[in-house]
Specification:
The complex is a heterodimer of chains A (about 375) and B (about 625).
Chain A lengths: L1 E6 L16 H12 L10 H17 L5 H22 L8 H7 L15 H4 L1 H11 L12 H6 L15 H26 L3 H11 L17 H28 L7 H17 L10 H15 L3 H16 L28 H11 L3 H5 L1
Chain B lengths: L1 E2 L6 H12 L3 E8 L4 H14 L12 E5 L14 E4 L5 E2 L3 E6 L3 E6 L5 H6 L3 E6 L4 E2 L1 H8 L4 H9 L1 E2 L10 E4 L5 H7 L5 E7 L12 H12 L4 E10 L5 E3 L2 H9 L7 E6 L10 E8 L2 E9 L5 H4 L5 E2 L1 E8 H9 L13 E3 L6 E4 L2 E7 L4 E6 L2 H6 E5 L2 E2 L7 E2 L10 E6 L12 E11 L1 H4 L11 H6 L8 E6 L8 E5 L6 H21 L4 H17 L9 H23 L1 H4 L4 H13 L8 H11 L4
Parallel strand pairs in B: 2-3, 3-4, 5-18, 9-10, 12-13, 13-15, 14-20, 21-28, 22-28
Antiparallel strand pairs in B: 2-6, 6-7, 7-8, 11-19, 12-16, 13-14, 16-17, 17-19, 22-23, 23-26, 24-25, 24-27, 27-28, 29-30
The chains are: A mainly alpha (about 375), B alpha/beta (about 625).
Amino acid sequence: MTTTVFWNVSHKRQRDRAADPLGLDALREAMADCLVPHLTGGTRHAVDYLWVLVGLRWAHETATTPVDADVWEEFRKFERALKQYWQKFTPRRDYLGKLEVSDRCNGDRPDVSRPILVNERATGLLGTYIASLRAIGLVDTKHLAPTKAGETLVRGVELPARARTFTSWPALRAVFEPTERDLQRRRPGLGPHVFLDERMRRAAIAFASRRCAATWYACDRSHLSAEQRRVARACAAVLDVERAMVTGFADLLDGRRRLDGSRKAQLRATAARVLARRPIPDLWSHHALATALERAWTLLARGPSPESALLNLHIEVTKCARGNDPWIQEIGEHTLVDFRPTFGGRDFRFGNLARLVSETRWSNSAARA
Amino acid sequence: MQLEPDRASVLDRLCARLGASGARPRAILGCTYPFKTAIFAEILEHIAKALSIDAADLGRIPVDVVCDKRLYRGHALDRRFRVHLYPHEQLFHPKLLMILLENEVIWISGSGNLTAAGYCSNREIALLHEPGDLKLPPTLRRLLAKLPGDAAGVIRDATGDGPRGSSRRGGRFVTSLDSRIGREFLSRAPRGVHEICILAPYFEQANGDDPLDRGWLDALRARFPDALFRVYLPLLETGRRPLVQGDRALFEAFRDNLRQLDSLRFYPVRDDPGPLHGKLVALVYRGTKGRRARILVGSPNPSRRALLLPGRNVETAWIADVKVSALAAFLDGLDVGESRPLEALRFAPPRRQSEIAWTALSCAALDPVTRTLSLTWVDGRRRQETDVFYGSRRLKVEADSCVHAFVLDAAHGAVMTCPKSGVRVPTTPKGKIVPGYCPIDVALADRMLLGAVEAEMSPEDWLALLGSDPGRSVGFFGEASSRGTGRTFQTRTGAFGPSERVRDLAGHLRHTLKRLRLEPWSRAEREASFRVLRGIFASHDPASSGLATDDRIWRAWVRAEIIRFAAYAARDREVRGQGLSGPLRSLASELRGQLDLRAVPALARAQVHLVASDLP
């Protein structure tokens, strides 16, 4: 029996993912769902939609049972191989797991046996695209299989991958390169599926009518539905109030009891503006987070203590709406949470929409014809 | 026992040890005063990584946390572990984390609770115990016998009593359930004690009703009147007269009764890298082997309630003899500098707990298959006076103390109890009444079915628990090719076609057997899987009214497939090696006994009988 006694220090912790302490990420997601309901933050490339369909079809053929778990096991091998192909033979680098893949590509042969991502199912290609593919009817809603429409879209695109394909770089290239060429040509076929839904179509026209636009505010909003128009107009106000709220909350996390006068004024002004813009989509208006946010904005705009408003919002968001532990329970409390907010890439999926419209060469007139 | 001067992460050390063992886990138990879900989930992920298993697989073994009911305020649901409140009236204060492996048990004790502060920021004293076998101190096994949940029982049953231990040879583990820890420590104290070190976060404010800490300090002074007392306290503010956490009146009264006023010296401990939360009492003495120290280290604060009064707190501690040089090096880690007299300090009393929870439930057990939440009340009167909430929803509790059609939500793993409006809450001098919480308990076997079962289970719903679904793709049409071309998927929606139902079921049963060969079922998994198989069997009764003849036949075939699977798996060589043969064979014969085929036409009946009959 050995017993050792020592002073404990913290183990190495993975930095907490920005866990949306005030519910504002959720608000932006809800707004984006209203503007482009069938996209997600990760649906960036038309060709990736097609890769997922081809991968699922191949995984279904390779799996020994029709069970989703087995299909997924095959699909993950396909995805690992695809990413190594991208890294080794193409200039493409905008995918998750670059560092790991780049290491793997220094080896003598591809390696599809080890995971590339910590949670491949959720953060890999399938996790990123499956919701969108199901929403546009290309993947079965209950199982990991392309629908008839999905099958039709990639019919004729071959992926003659076998086990030995994954054992040498030339074999990997020989299989994936022609497939990728085929899929690039098939991208226009995806457009009618992605932009079939009325709201998606309106959003695409709004962008296509003013292609130089870089934000929802700048695009041609006259094509949007009334609700989309209201939400699009509110985007800038949401970003402003978010910046003010998150920075103020970061001050509270530092143990400060009172915010600066300028910060309070900024909070008051931005909260009043966002209240006037009414950014919350109708479908989300009864959500607990929506109610909490509206209450907080009202208190920030008119109430005496913005500190309490921010703290109460945080407690309500974490404890009541999500069931997590609040980072702080009282004003002035110190916290361990490493919270470093960044404000980049918050475009309500406008960039994704623009890229998909361009890559699929979709146009309203062509779609009607 | 080895006192190490260097700081280290107890979790990292535990994980390194687990990784080296290469064994599979059998049970995990955590004991804590307050509990936070997030850190425990993080700990489990580290443990799973060290053991090279998927963290989700921990849901297959008993993983329990036992915490004190006074500080429990609910937790986010996590399918990997269950939370239990210590059911007795004592304040539950141990801090333990025990990992039972196949051939040994490794455990942590000390002062750190299962909270982020306890594992990541506070200055905590950690004890890592590596017996190298399946032996535990008898005192600890007696404590396990009193704890709720499966894990404590599994660990207790799998382990045996190790040597009781002695203070001089490696140390001994004591709990307040066996004896009063303070008395035990003092009764076997060495002679020639000339110095006493006391290290603790709380010397609580003494009051007229219950002068808690004076009791323990007085006991030390009465036993060692000539000793020099060195007290280590958390430093709250620096300055010419530093502010420390403690009660001036308590220490003044203590000092006034010392023979020499300068026999009490203080060491403020800075909160860098974190606030002091470790607890230690050391009696320094001169023995035959030179200067040594008898130490008491573990969960108890230096209070009468923790160390001297019977039946008040549940505490665990380790008593051992160490070299003074080792103790000095250990305390040097606090980097406290020069000692200070009482006058050179300012004191701020610690915040007292001033809330009393409205505890109305002793248990809330959920059956995820029937979706029934069964409530057990602490007494009948509370039931009449209490509203039960789940999240923000008030639950309708039926006369049988059950909530039917209960829908579990991932954010909330507990129900909340509040006094009904109009109920006169008794006023108490101890504090204000706040809502009480009771964790929702789902049996280990049923945890795997959480979220999978519907309110009204149709035959299709039961099949879906195995992964079958009428909407799934069941195969390919077109020319056979492995090149991914020339094939289309056959996709169905709605109900199963008659033969599809059986074919699909057979496919999933093959998959189940394949998985079973790769990885044996735990007991809980076996129970859950058997429950599903029995559910499929029961839901496919060919004698149900209103069925067409075809449906009766196919339902009988489904039943036959289940029986055949159980009988076939029982004979599989790899499954047999896992000790599952017997239960599977019993299941097959149990279901065979229920195979009523009177409603099936004679020809089909004969065929089904043939398939379902015992294999040669």
